[in-house]
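Contributing new records

If you add data, match the layout below exactly. Sequence lines come first and carry their own label; structure lines follow with theirs. Keep one chain per record. Anything else will be rejected by the validation script.
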Amino acid sequence: MNRPPAEALTERELEVMHVFWAKGQQSAQDARDELENRGRHLTYTTVATLCKILWEKGFLERIGEARPFQFMPAKSFQEVSRHLVSELVHRVFQGSREQLLLNVIGNKKLSKQKLKLLEELLRDEEGTES
């Protein structure tokens, strides 16, 4: 399997980022402990390596020069998730947000309130396209 491009996140990298988004600034050991609390058993060296990779990719910011290094998110959850969803729409649904929504909603019955919210979101999105 090919390594994802530098701007892409692997599954493990995304797991680590979720810890930093939830807890903020912390060390790799703190992140490893939090992953352990969530039922994800990774060694310290694995998490430290993932933090280093995320720092090199620009997803984490390293605070200070003293060890153990402290890291904090350099990109927000909103920024990263927006990019991932945009990439999914482009790659899988050939740019069609409507096809994504149809696929996500499927045969689910939506309340009038949720339908109205979706309609507003789509209308707003159409207005922002150039």
